[in-house]
């Protein structure tokens, strides 16, 4: 029984390392109601994690019809958006609260 528990723990640890190694981290920042960078390039056919940081004193939103994502970001807060694996192409995103200034493009290569 003890051997089974030991091997199960090793298998579970390997699985956790494998899952966390699959998603690469990227950062988008909202500053002065604009996304920085405005264009973010990620690899095709891979799952990625995008941390969206809101440095402004007002709420913001990461929204994308192309990616089917919508997340509200508190003032001076952050959220994580996981996307992919995606085909090569361009995917747009925006802050619905500041549509006139906060737009961006995810470039997948």
What report would you give on this structure?
The protein has 109 residues and is of the alpha/beta class. It has a single domain (23-108), classed as Sandwich (Immunoglobulin-like). Helix content is 19%, strand content 46%. The chain has 1 helix and 9 strands. The protein has one helix at residues 2-22; strands at 24-31, 34-36, 39-42, 48-54, 60-64, 69-73, 78-83, 89-94, 103-108. Strands 2-1-4-7 form a 4-stranded mixed sheet. It has a 3-stranded mixed sheet with strand order 3-9-8, with no helix packed on it. The protein has a two-stranded antiparallel sheet with strand order 5-6. A hairpin with an 8-residue loop joins strand 8 and strand 9 (103-108). The chain is globular. 19% of the residues are buried. Mean pLDDT is 87; it is low at 14-20.
Structural class: alpha/beta
Query: β content, as a range?
Result: over 45%
Give the termini distance in whole angstroms.
Answer: 48 Å
Strands of the biggest beta sheet: in what spatial order? 2-1-4-7
* E-strand count: 9
CATH architecture: Sandwich
The ordered string of helix (H) and strand (E) elements is: HEEEEEEEEE
The radius of gyration over CA amounts to 17 Å
- Please identify which CATH superfamily we are dealing with: Cupredoxins -  blue copper proteins
CATH topology: Immunoglobulin-like
Mean pLDDT: 87
């Amino acid at each position: 029984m003890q051997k089974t528990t030991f091997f199960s723990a090793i298998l579970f640890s390997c699985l956790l390392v494998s899952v966390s190694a699959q998603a690469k981290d990227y950062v988008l920042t909202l500053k002065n109601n604009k996304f920085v960078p405005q264009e973010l390039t990620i690899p095709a056919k891979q799952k990625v994690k995008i941390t969206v940081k809101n440095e402004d004193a007002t709420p913001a939103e990461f929204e994308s019809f192309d990616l089917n994502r919508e997340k509200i970001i508190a003032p001076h807060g952050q959220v994580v958006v996981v996307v992919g694996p995606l085909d090569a192409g361009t995917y747009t995103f925006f802050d619905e609260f500041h549509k006139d200034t906060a737009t961006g493009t995810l470039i997948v290569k």
